[in-house]
Amino acid sequence: MRWRRAADWLADVGWRFAATATSGAARQQQQNQPQKKLGLKEVQHIVAITSAKGGVGKSTTAVNVAVAMATRLGLRVGLLDADIHGPSVPTLMNLRGKPELDKTGSQALMLPKENYRVKTMSFGFFLEGDEPVVWRGPMVNNAFDKMLFGTEWGRLDVLVVDMPPGTGDAQINLGQRIPLSGAALVSTPQDVALIDVRRGAQMFLKMRVPLLGIIENMSSHTCSRCGHVEHIFGAGGVERAARDYGVEVLGEVPLHVDIQSKSDAGTPVVASDPRGALAASYTHIAERIIARLQQLGASQPAAPKISVE
User: Fold this and answer.
1) For 223-247, how does the pLDDT look when each residue is reduced to its tens digit (9 = 90+)?
2) Domains of the chain, earliest start first
3) Among 26, 146, 195, 220, which has the minimal tally of Cβ within 10 Å of its Cβ?
């Protein structure tokens, strides 16, 4: 099967995949063992861009926020596509091909691809065409760990993680294995979307991950002919959810055709039109995320230091 090509290639560089689910005792033993975090040794903050609801524009938001941090705020930024089953970051960042390897250390590390001053890693780099990833939980978690810990990220101010939708293995694995600095939730104003987003917020709170705030995507649409502004997905829902959880609305991004067309072309609006109003929306969100990280750093004890083993 074609999906084995990615697994075989990764195995050549020391990646090992569990063929079946492990028992409870074996899984507990694995969790108690120290984890290798070589590639993360110089990463200062790890931020999850997340939503328990699919189809709210989370990946597009993660990409544009990461590019804004790098190109508008001058930060050293990485971007990890954590959606193993549906990786879209390669298309959004206009990146292709398998990553090169750095074999100079005791363990081979993958070198992230870079565009728009953002270092990027995605499982999509290992897939060909439209081949699916027909993997169960243990293999998905293993692949995710290897992309996170087995990439030579170098010195980064922020590693942005584009999370898959849901509240399952990927989110729990990330929240338990590494010291997340915080999570920013993405939602449309629609109540149906906010129901799931609230569940996502509860999940991160249970894992003691700070909520940085909520991003309102597709907040409104402005007619290109008459200028009429219409709230297609409703209004006020994100503000109410933010108020309920004691966080701020990090910013609002309108529903605009340029975001869609630029994303499909692999030229995020922040990079293709950095002085435009749409880029300004994402830049504002990036600024608020950095400000929240600084506030949390001042009000909380220092986060656990990522060690090299």
Assistant:
1) 888 888 888 776 888 999 999 999 9
2) 44-299 (3.40.50.300)
3) 26
